[in-house]
Amino acid sequence: MHDQQVILRDYPRTIWLFGAFLVAVGGYLYYRTPQQWFTLAVPVGIFLLILIFSSTLTVKTDSTTSTLILSTQSLVRRTKKEIPLATIAAITIEQSINNKQDGRTITYRIAIQQVDGQTIPLRSYYTGGLAGKVKQAKVLSAHLDLPFESSSSGPGFGSVSELIQHAAEITQTAFENSPKEERIIKGVRWMVQVAAQSGTSITRLHSTEFNLPEKFLFLAQKAKGQKTQTEGMIATLSKTLFQKSISMYGFTAEDTPYIEFSEALVPLDPQVDPYFSAFTSDPDGARQLLNSKSVQHLACWAEENPLKMITFGQQANQLVVLFCPRGLYLAFFGKMDDPALDQVASLGADLIRAQQD
């Protein structure tokens, strides 16, 4: 008998929940109009097909044959694929981007990167739930003693990542060594720091009264009329510049989880689109965060404090806002006097209350 060890077992919960949702909707419609029996029969039929054909994935190793075994099992079908461990180079997460009129949808799947460059996905389809897939990929890569990589990052990501990490470490050290001043503005407690970096200074406000678990939303003020590129080489460059520039404020990997999967959030609400660019690791969650009150506060602040196009030798007084697991940050290049500091902190307090109302 082969000595096999199960590494992970993945159930198609997303598909099951979708089927259950259809049945719930059908049940409600049937309750409202009992004579239209098909409103319930159709979703029940779809749900039954989902239960019949959806499969459970099991990933295990066989120490006797030195293979990784991928097996799926549904009520009507079983599949099995054996991959020699010697041919596996890394565990990756692939992403699929679907651009729609009402925004961009990003879904993911775990894949096995082979030494010959080919990839073998664990599932043939993409679904949401990035955090869960990252956890599964890390478990699998740790068990196989393999690197975990993001295949969506593109060529040269490793070197860019190292530059980002190096810049973040320098700025973070500057913030660690700078004094903190506590202020309470509009009932919100803020820690205010001014850190010297590369011949200039950075003012940063931080509150822990609101946090965004396992995701982030980064907003950067822009000059009115400045466009956010979403496709082509310019968009790729913008993403790289974003990842590099965010480290200038001392934000670390704990502040920006899954930054390698971040994308420009487009389209933004028409009220804030003229004034801010946004990057996020979770577009759906970010849109919920930018509710009507949030966008109103951001738009009003930007209207009163416009960022102008700068020329050589000038410094942009650009506001950046970061919602993240460690709280809410607001940052500026340069020092701010007390009235300006209070104004920025008031905006932050309004953004926090917009999530709590």
Number of distinct beta strands: 16
- What's the helix count? 8
Unreliably modeled segments: 151-161, 230-235, 309-316
User: Could you say which structural class the secondary elements and strand pairing correspond to?
Assistant: alpha+beta
Radius of gyration: 24 Å
* Content of β-strand: 25-35%
Query: What is the straight-line distance between the termini?
Result: 61 Å
| Helix and strand run | EHHEEEEEEHEHEEEEHEEHHEEH
Biggest sheet layout: 8 strands, antiparallel
Instruction: Using the alpha-carbon principal axes, give the shape.
Output: globular
Report the mean per-residue pLDDT as an integer: 80
Query: Strand arrangement, largest sheet?
Result: 9-10-11-16-15-12-14-13
**Estimated helix fraction:** 25-40%
Query: How many discrete domains?
Result: 2
What does this structure look like?
Strands 9-10-11-16-15-12-14-13 form an eight-stranded antiparallel beta sheet. Strands 1-2-3-4 form a four-stranded antiparallel beta sheet, with helices on one face. 35% of the residues lie in helices and 30% in strands. It starts with a strand and ends with a helix. It folds into two domains: 4-150, no CATH class; 157-356, no CATH class. It is globular, with a radius of gyration of 24 Å. It is built from eight helices and 16 strands. 27% of the residues are buried. It is of the alpha+beta class and 357 residues long.
